[in-house]
Amino acid sequence: MLLRPQREDLKNIGYYLGKIILGLGLIMLVPLIVGIVFGEINPTLDFLISIELTLTLGLLLTKLCFTEKDLNWMQGMIIVSLSWLVAMFLGALPLYLSGHWKSYLDACFDAMSGFATTGLALVQDLDHLSYTHNLWRHLIMFIGGQGIVIVALSFFVKSFSGAFKMYVGEARDERVLPNVIHTARFIWLVSIVYLILGTLALGIVGILNGMKATNAFFHGACVFMAAFDTGGFAPQSQNILYYHSLPFEIITIVIMILGAINFKLHYHIWMGNRKEILKNIETRALFITIFLTFLLTAIGLGRLGSYPKGILLFRKGFYQLISGHTGTGYMTIYPTQFMNEWNHLALVGVICAMALGGAVCSTTGAIKMLRIGVIFKALLEDIKRIILPEQAIVIQKFHHIKEMFLEDRQVRSALMITLAYLGLYVAGAIVGMFFGYPFLNSLFESTSAAANVGLSCGITEASMPAALKVTYIIQMWAGRLEFMAIFTLIGFLVAAIRGK
Amino acid sequence: MINKLKAQSSKLKVTTQNLKFYVLSFGFALCALHSTLNTAFAQSVSSTELINHAKDYDGKVVVYSGEVIGDIMVRGKYAWINVFDGKNAIGIWLDKDLAKEITYTGTHKSKGDVVEISGIFHRACLEHGGDLDIHAQSLSKTFGGASLSEPFNNGKRNAALLLSGVLCLVLIWSRLKLR
């Protein structure tokens, strides 16, 4: 029997949602300050309006729904799924006010793409966008990559158990440190340290490449935020092709890989346990799948002869592939070149890479390496069972920070999420085909949206059907939160309508 | 005998002149054909056309025009600029001195110079890591850019003032409620 949600449920959800909205409003102060510094008056006003609206809504919710009760699992999950939707609607406000998006739906698309660290964009005339709005586009990737709720956890939420429920809802089922709030703060520490180093490296390369110092460091900070959080937005319309620079590409590759690594692994590396990189099932799976998918891509490109020299094939092929595999979406080719100059084999390599993703508890989307490793180990175990005598006891182990025995529930969970992702990729592709796009194009763009990658083969543009934009928004949202929080929200809504 | 030799010599002269004429004509024809092949795209080609039909234009001289956006990135004797034609921006590799003609580049606060570039188009440039680019041979400015002064938006200002009032009221109300 379905039970209709109680008033207390709504109060708890409203109160914590209000806190997250307040956090979002305060983060909008960063671009507001940048707007004042650069003397961009109207963009500053866009943010002032958005901050006022956001803070008003946050204050109303926290006061009207004030409660001191702790969260239960259902409430935690619903808060997470709703907070991402609310963040999209509020985060889109300053974007829409800028006039660079054709409709509010387009602004919402880019806001969700930013928060979910996807990188697909519908912005118009990006090359004339203000510093203020450009910073916001990249900052929402930085916030989304850490997790919107993590932001709130770090600063606003005092209750440890309630915090953990929201933390799990945001597709982070691993704690780096025993306390979830300390984990959230550690994630921030890692990100800020890398932000400083990455911005410096990219800024210096930018200056050496001939950019003005202000632009070089601004671009450096933006590109770092989008690369480390495996987002894929860039300050200019040509994406990374704008810089025409090998060192810039190499640094972004390093940052993308750092972003695709589990924060728990970062912690162990920071603590001096560097051997963990070689032993960990996730990093092993990551390097093996990078090798295999690149092999497919390279054979495809080689057969077609798209690039006359091996080194060019490597530079273009590997960059797009690593960008897809880490879920970033940075490009050094034009979107339509994928379809015009890459053959099906090369594209299948990239699609597989996008579908697989990076590590769990990182900023990437998609199926993720731990699940791929677990499924592979389960397959090995089953093969051993067939080969070995019936009396033999087969035990499968894997190394993920510590030695672990493979359990059926881990395999079931990994398979369930993998199936859900595959279903999401296919569903988006069917919608794309419904609107007349070819199969491979539709699958490419759908996988890119659902796996929060951001590589595009040219479908994503302002003129695409509104229903397809909504489909991709849902895919980005579901893909980022890894389904459970969204299933809980759907269950909650059904219970609200049909419950007793 | 002398007459015969003279006749033969004059015949030879005529043949040599004919040969010269044929060689020159052939040379001209080759030059004409070469120039026709290389400047088949004397009219400005759009970025979409270049990107979507890159193989057709690969290694050929094209004319491309648009607004210079972002930075002029000087690299030794050369420089990179990016030129946006309303749909896409394409990287242009040009002599540093050619880049000196550019006064404004497109940003939020300025409209960049509109330039017309004639140069060799590369689908996957061997020199630049496989980038799709144009190596400029000439550059001419067709429209000068300018600094943009953004008009103050009164509507936004009024909305901001109104909302600040609402926010203050909500803040006061929430404080009162707590007490």
Structural account:
The complex is a heterodimer of chains A (500) and B (179). Chain A is built from 22 helices and 2 strands. In chain A, β1 (397-400) and β2 form a beta hairpin. Chain A is mainly α. Chain A starts with 6 loop residues before the first helix and ends with a helix. In chain A, α4 crosses α8 and α6 runs parallel beside α10. Helix content of chain A is 69%, strand content 2%. In chain A, strands 1-2 form a two-stranded antiparallel ribbon. Chain A has a domain at 1-173. With 179 residues, chain B is α+β, with helices and mostly antiparallel strands. Chain B has 2 domains: 1-38; 41-147, OB fold (Dihydrolipoamide Acetyltransferase, E2P). Chain B contains 5 helices and 8 strands; from the N terminus they run αβααβββαββββα. Chain B has a 5-stranded mixed β-barrel with strand order 2-3-4-7-6. In chain B, strands 5-8 form a two-stranded antiparallel sheet. In chain B, a hairpin with a 2-residue loop joins β2 (61-75) and β3. Chain B is elongated. Mean pLDDT of chain B is 84; it is low at 31-39. The chains are: A mainly alpha (500), B alpha+beta (179).
User: How is the main sheet of chain A built?
Assistant: 2 strands, antiparallel
How large a portion of the residues of chain A is in β-strands, by DSSP E?
A: under 5%
- Structural class of chain B, by secondary structure, is alpha+beta
With strands numbered from the N-terminus, the spatial order across the biggest sheet of chain A is: 1-2
- Low-confidence sequence ranges of chain B: 31-39
How many angstroms separate the termini of chain A? 8 Å
Number of helical stretches of at least 4 residues of chain A:
22
The general outline of chain A is globular
Number of strands of chain A: 2
User: What is the CA-based Rg of chain B, rounded?
Assistant: 31 Å
Strand order of the largest sheet of chain B: 2-3-4-7-6
**Sheet with most strands of chain B:** 5 strands, mixed, barrel
CATH homologous superfamily annotation of the largest domain in chain B: Nucleic acid-binding proteins
Please give the oligomerization state of what you see: heterodimer
Give the largest interface. A-B, 52 and 49 residues
